[in-house]
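User: Please look over both lines:
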Amino acid sequence: MVEDLMDRTGIARRGDVDGCRWGAIRHAVDHVHVAAVLVSQVSGRRVAPFRDFVRARETCQVWEERLGVVRTAGADRSSVTGPSRAELEKAARLGLGEISESSSREWLRRQVRAVAVQARDAEGFVAVLSRRGVSVRPRYAVVGDRDSGMVGYAVSVPGDKTAAGRPVWFSGRRLAADLSLPNLRARWASAVPVPGQPTTEGSRAAAVWVSSECRAAAVEGAVSAMEQATAALSSGSLSDLDGDGVAHAAGDMLAAVGVVTAVQDPEGRVSRVAGDVFDRATRVPGRVLPVRWPLVAVGLRSAAWELAAVRHLSESGEADAARLIVALAAVVAEVAALREAQRRPAQAAAARRSYDTLAAVPVAAAAVVSAWSVSRSPKVGHSRGQEPPRPVRPVASRRAPFRDRGQGPERSPGL
């Protein structure tokens, strides 16, 4: 396998006496380490392998298929940078609540994703981040001139400093490619605000009070948009490009649901666990953002904006929280089936793990079990004509439209 790797990357071609010297070190049963001297052993010329990381990933996939082991994802340039060991140890030393369980990089990425759904312009984006306790440093076209226009930003965790006492800053692109300011602007431009929806936390001061009517309308709109997205994905009427747009918009809806259900989900299973995992399933291989946004994706993103604008459900909002999480789980399940049909196993596995997390959220799981009893209870009636939460259909009961269109293998019989 290592000889094949060296040959495919061009570091040491088979039969080439001038190839680089290399060594393979196997100190575990499941992997080897490879070290190569990038100087030809005869001529002494320096070797600069071209796209060796991509070739290495292709080699791994060839041998995974040949040996019948678990297939890993390809090098599609869509991954995010994970925390280093030093970042994890530093986070544990800081002991800053949620940050100590992950790292500053991951906590900031989670905050920025949530705020990207709550804001619709650069100025509002900075304002909401500041209100959430994140240190923000905007970058303008002309240094110090706000009128020149904002061209980028960097964020930092208060208290996270270097040995020299300086804040540790992360640009949006260092957190994730789709969180750079130009890509955030493209996302905000992909959908339009719904007339009459509540005021969002943008450049203007956020509304202190949201009426129960606005909150009910936002929840109803979000559930309706998710049901439409679920139906569109399960029907097979969307092309792969349109499916990518819906999957990415579903990530925004997950972030919005995580924001408004913080009280009903104190452990953060929606916003932290499911959101972090599902992020992998929303990415488009080889690109930062989807090629196009179909109408169902536009509706899903607009509904996410409307939902995030209410900021939180009422203290007795368990029923609304359950409806949102159950509807969200249905969309995530269909995204998993879509990724399987597209032959993207790593993204499908991420969506399945997110679905499992959402299905295990106590408020949603209880709602599925007691859906009929809630609908008949005289004390917990649906005065606004809302239907009780409906359980998510198992994947085995869905049709496999992508197989019928010849666009991929039959879907997995279950999540």
Remarks:
- The chain has 17 helices and five strands.
- The first strand starts at residue 20 and ends at 25.
- Residues 212-235 form the longest helix (24 residues).
